[in-house]
Amino acid sequence: MDNKKDLSKSIYIGYTPRLILYIVLVPILSVLAVILFYKAFEVDDLLNIRYQELGSINEKILDVNKQETTDKTKIDTITLDMEYSFNINYESNLEFTNKVVGDLLIVDKSNENTIYYEDTFDLLEEEKEIVSIEKDYIINKQVTIPYKDYIAQVEKYRNSYEMETKAYIKVSEEINYNSSSNNSYYLKDNANNTIIIPLTEDNLVIEKDTIDTEKRVNTKPTVHLESPGLLGIGVIISILAIFSLTQVITLIYSVIDQKSIYDKVVDKLLKKYKNKITVVTKQPYLRGKKKINVNNFKELLKINNRVKTPIKYCSINDHNKCQFYIEENKQVYSYIIKAIDLEKKD
Fold it and tell me: Half-sphere exposure of residue 74, counting CA atoms within 13 Å on the CB side?
């Protein structure tokens, strides 16, 4: 019997530790799987829109970081030529709307935050442009400002109130787009596209820089597989997460709704051989004794019939592990039953 396989040395994890282990694994594996799936796929819900703008005064293009100075007494109107070049990064279905707005502002000369008069007006009505494929779209716009008329309006205001003021026209372009989902998004910040035209200075000085910017805006999401390897790992981890979840359900169900295989086997032995079995609370004292492990309960019965010594039963871990043993002089015959071993055989 000593040469037979010792089942008592198999690795054992109790019911409670197993339940806790699987409960902890379920959210960890689930989150990890989600992260891997997210990294495996590229979700592109941003549209790159690259635009460039140029401004001109009286048909003369203003160079970058340069100034155009003109004697204002010789100007009746100011013409602003604006060219916007759009480039989108993939095929889409967008409707752009754009318009030019002017603000006439009369403010305190020493504190521009103090506004005495403000009038907002459309310099160019809203226009639409449909963008559907990946290519460059160029929008050319020309705005004429009745500069001399606005100077007269400001002078009339200043003469009426005899106040120390300064005045200017702030010209802004508003660009928006509508997606196929009928959601409207604001594309550009007016502060980045504003021309200030002074009305009370002796000379007309307009500063205008060329702007070359890339803007990313929300559109309908598109999904592309980026890493098949991460996708494969994510699938494996998802399977492990599902397995852990099923183990949690199985372990809980085995306790709540029915007896486990372990409980059925042990209860059957205790009931069938109640005349041969004595229930004890402690495992055998082995100092100075030889422990002999047997592979099944039948072998223990044969020894019991031979030595006429009762079989002792000790619960080591409720519902998970117990020991049946016979003590004879300096020898202890032992048979251990584990829930994990029975579940593997099932």
Answer: 6
Strand partners, 126: none
98 strand-pairing partners: 127, 175
Q: Is residue 255 part of a domain?
A: no
Q: Which residues of 6-24 are buried (b: 16+ CB within 10 A; e: fewer)?
A: eebeeebebbeebbeebee
Query: Angle at CA 52, nearest 5°, toward 46 and 56?
Result: 155
Residue 199 · residue 148 · CB < 8 Å = no
173/50 same-domain check: yes
The per-residue pLDDT for range 251-288, each reduced to its tens digit, is: 887 666 567 789 889 999 999 999 999 999 999 999 88
Burial class for 346, CB neighbours closer than 10 Å (0-12, 13-18, 19+) = exposed
243 belongs to a structural domain = no
**Would you state the structure tokens that stand for residue 41, as one six-digit string?**
């796929």
Closest of 93, 178, 96, 75 to residue 139, by C-alpha: 96
Domain C-terminal end among 181, 196, 216: 216
What are 301-331's pLDDT values in tens digits? 999 999 989 999 999 998 889 999 999 989 9
Q: What is the pTM of this model?
A: 0.41
Q: Is residue 49 part of a domain?
A: yes
Q: What is the largest CA-CA distance in the chain?
A: 130
Residues spanned by the domain of 327: 260-346
The string of pLDDT tens digits covering residues 117-171 is 988 888 888 777 776 655 566 667 778 888 888 888 888 888 888 778 898 888 8
Tally of CB atoms within 10 A around 336? 21
Tokens of 234: 């994510």
